[in-house]
Amino acid sequence: MVNIIALIPAYDEEVAIGSVILRTLQYVDDVLIVDDGSSDATSQVAKLAGAKVITHPTNLGKGEGLKSGFHYIGDNYDIILTIDGDGQHNPDEIPKLLKPILDGESDLVNGSRYMNGPEENTPAYRRVGQQVLDKATNISAGISITDSQSGFRAFASKITPCFRFKDTGFGIESEMLVDAAENGFRISEVPITVRYDVDGSTKNPVTHGVGVLLTILKDKVIRTVKK
Question: pLDDT band for position 170 (50/70/90)?
C-alpha cells in the first residue's frame, strides 16, 4: 500500500484552507499544514478540517515552510504532494500528478499551467516573467520545464534528501528542480489548471520575479565555482 501525504505551506489562508484540505483528503492519506506565522485562524481551521499542523512563530517564507514540512514528514510516506493553500490549484487534478510516480516512470512530477501552450487566464506581464524564470531554471538545471514556478508537485520520498532548502522564499520552486536534476532524478510534467480569481498574493509580481531570477543566477554561479 502506498502512503501519500499532501504538504501545504500556508500564510493567512483561513478563508480557503478548509476547503482545500477537505478536497485534497479525497486523494491522499494525510494533509500537513505548515502555518508560516499566520495572524488569522489558519491553524484552527486546518485542524478542524482534519489536517496535521505545525507552526512557525513568525513568517519565514515559503522555502522555510517546505523545509519544515519535508523534515517533519521524513521517510514516513511514499509520496509527498505539494499544493497551494489559497485555492488556486484544483485538488481533483491530484491523481494526474501521482500517476507517473505510481507507475514508476518519474521521481518528481511538476504540474504545469503552460504544458499545452499559453494559459489564457494568466496576465500577460506575469507570463513574460514566468518565461524568463523558466529559461533561467532550465539552463541552470539542464532540463526542459514549462512551468518552473509551480507549487503543485508530487515527489517520490526517496528524492527528498537531495533538497538543500537553501532559498527561504519563492525561489525554492526553481531550487528544488535544480537539486533533483543534479542528482539524476527523473522529472516530468503534467498539465494543470489554475484559478487566478482567488490569488491572495501580496507580493509585487515584478519585484518577486526579479528576486527569484537573481537567486537562480547566483545559485548557478556558486555551484559552478564549487565544481
Answer: confident
Beta-bridge partners for 163: none
Strand boundaries in the chain, DSSP class E: 4-10, 30-36, 52-56, 79-82, 108-112, 153-156, 187-191
- Grid cell 478548509 is found at 18
pLDDT value at 201 more than 70:
no
CA–CA distances in Å: residue 134 to residues 5, 33, 62, 173, 203: 27, 27, 19, 11, 19
Q: Percent of the chain having pLDDT more than 90?
A: 72
> Partners of 112 in the beta sheet?
191
Q: Which of 49, 64, 51 is nearest to 11 (CA)?
A: 64
147 closest CA partner among 159, 139, 135: 135
Q: Is the pTM of this model over 0.90?
A: no
Beta strand pairing call for 153-156 and 79-82: antiparallel
